[in-house]
Request: fold
Amino acid sequence: MLTAVKPQKLMAAGRAFAAIAEFHPELTAFRRDLHVHPELGFEEVYTAGRVKQALELCGVDEIHTGIGKTGVVGLIRGKSKSANMIGLRADMDALPLTEHNPFGWKSGQPGKMHACGHDGHTTMLVGAARYLAETRNFDGTAVLIFQPGEEGYAGAKAMIEDGLFDRFPVQAAYAMHNWPSMPPGTVGVNRGPMMAAADRITITITGKGGHGAHPYMAIDPVLVAAHIITAAQSIVSRNVKPQDSAVVSICAMNAGDLGAMSVIPGTATLVGTVRTFNADVQDMIEKRLHTLIASVAEAFGATASMNYERIYPATINTPIEAMFAADVAAMMVGEENVTRDMVPSMGAEDFSFMLQAKPGAYLRLGQGDGLGQPGCFLHNSRYDFNDEVLPLGAALFAGLVEQSMPLTV
Ligand SMILES: [Zn+2]
Ligand SMILES: [Zn+2]
Reply:
């Protein structure tokens, strides 16, 4: 439960929300402009330019561009200038799909769409920048991180490798993601895993091609693939402890030619994903897959190899920062609208790289249906970010800064 919040903190939270609500129409216009101009990972030139321009207009103290290719960092110093430093992160990239919404601000780029709401995240952080630069009611520096390439490009990692935390040594970092299945005005977080690690497996099976009517003269890699697919399902059911969570999914199979009914191919390829929260479980699954694949193939006289790529680590909140963020959220929306034991998602998120480097928390911000198709989830061609939640998201970002680095007077 939320421990006694001092009345002045509640007032400050209310002030931030009220002040940001004043420029809600401008935030909505900014968000919709980004929505019209979606850009894929590491191509966010227009978006980064719009962010830079907006930060300049806000009177942000320093703007650094080109971090991790197209990343942007803005610094705002509080009224009191201690070494305190808090990072807030928004992602800027869109997805490679064509939008099917009817409204005027739909994507102007066929094959590209803001279907994950990163246009909204970027706008919320710009809103926080405007409020924080105007008021500066904190002791230290707010580091606003606009990152490229969250959708599979590891843009957060690129920024870290480009010196993000060496140049801006934040003590904690926070991010939030809109969540359509939660109503607007709600926030979700937990003390540990929020999102899973995402790994990609590519299995290559080599047999011996031949005539479909004379399979005894061939070594059929399609049959071997079928047995490997079945055997792989035993890992989660027989090797992973029931208390742990994991997924092994084989999602693609490529073998032979659909026009050749009587040609046994020489090779088959399987592609899939492994999702875990715990490094020991992840290591065990990788090991078991190697053993099963090699042994099953050998049993049929074939050979098989696997390429196992660790794409994103699990997104794990640190407990103190997670509950602090929940407290700040409760000041804005009330304790009854904050979930502190959010069930993690098996999806993945590259803010995980920042949480490997720094304490912090990743929050879910309720977004409801918005103007997209009702019940439409992320990554759908009918999704749209709900502009109604822009002031709350921006105020929550600002509140994390004001409450974690309070003025002492
Ligand atoms: Zn996404
Ligand atoms: Zn996303």
Summary: The longest helix spans residues 279-299.
